[in-house]
């Protein structure tokens, strides 16, 4: 299994990059559109990778962060979600946004914003709602606390989730994140 790949980006296609390692081997790696924008041709890059073996060949999927990789693997545990679907979802949403939708059981946002079918969104929510705490890199309790505090102030949970996705510094203390979410909510209603 190829778990990590470091090399120089030789070429970039529509949804993939060609990475040449120091040993002279070139790997065609499927990537999200957001990662592809960050990877520059002729620059060195390190990607977390997943090798998918199927009947007619093998595909290598690459991720810039451990969080993207972890959410990708989590998505693969859902029946009916394959590597291409999981990669497509990650192309439209950050791992944090996806996890927030799952934790908030918000299949409508998954369906409407991220372009997957309603049935598949419901299935993702159902199958992953108990598993999201196992994904590294996120303070799920903080998001739940922000939603709880702001909903007691009379704001709709849907609106709160939308502004929480816009918070710039996700690593800030809970109080600062809550204040920023409140500011964002107030600017929406004025």
Walk me through what this model shows.
This protein has 190 residues and is α+β, with helices and mostly antiparallel strands. The protein has three domains: 4-63, Nucleic acid-binding proteins (OB fold (Dihydrolipoamide Acetyltransferase, E2P), Beta Barrel), CATH 2.40.50; 66-134, 5' to 3' exonuclease, C-terminal subdomain (DNA polymerase, domain 1), CATH 1.10.150; 140-189, Helicase, Ruva Protein, domain 3, CATH 1.10.8. Helix content is 48%, strand content 19%. The protein has nine helices and five strands; from the N terminus they run E-E-E-H-E-E-H-H-H-H-H-H-H-H. The chain has helices at 33-38, 66-76, 83-92, 95-103, 107-114, 118-128, 140-152, 157-164, 174-189; strands spanning 4-12, 16-20, 26-30, 44-54, 57-63. A five-stranded mixed β-barrel has the order 1-2-3-5-4. Strand 4 and strand 5 form a beta hairpin. Helix 8 (157-164) crosses helix 9. The longest helix has 16 residues, at 174-189. The protein is globular and about 60 Å long. The chain starts with a strand and ends with a helix. The model has no long low-confidence stretch (mean pLDDT 84).
């Amino acid at each position: 299994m190829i778990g990590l790949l470091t090399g120089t980006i030789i070429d970039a296609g529509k949804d993939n990059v060609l990475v040449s390692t120091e040993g002279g081997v070139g790997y065609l790696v499927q990537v999200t559109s957001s990662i592809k924008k960050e990877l520059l041709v002729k620059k060195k890059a390190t990607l977390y990778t997943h090798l998918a073996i199927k009947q007619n060949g093998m595909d290598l999927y690459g991720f810039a962060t451990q969080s993207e990789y972890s959410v990708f693997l989590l998505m693969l545990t859902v029946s009916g979600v394959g590597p291409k679907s999981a990669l497509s979802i990650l192309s439209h949403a950050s791992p944090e946004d996806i996890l927030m939708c799952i934790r908030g059981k918000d299949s409508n946002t998954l369906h409407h914003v991220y372009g997957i079918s309603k049935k598949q969104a419901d299935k993702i929510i159902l199958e992953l709602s108990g598993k999201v705490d196992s994904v590294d890199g996120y303070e799920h309790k903080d998001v739940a606390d922000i939603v709880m505090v702001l909903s007691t102030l009379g704001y709709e949970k849907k609106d709160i989730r939308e502004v929480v996705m816009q918070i710039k510094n996700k690593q800030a203390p809970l109080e600062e994140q809550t204040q920023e979410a409140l500011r964002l909510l107030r600017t929406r209603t004025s």
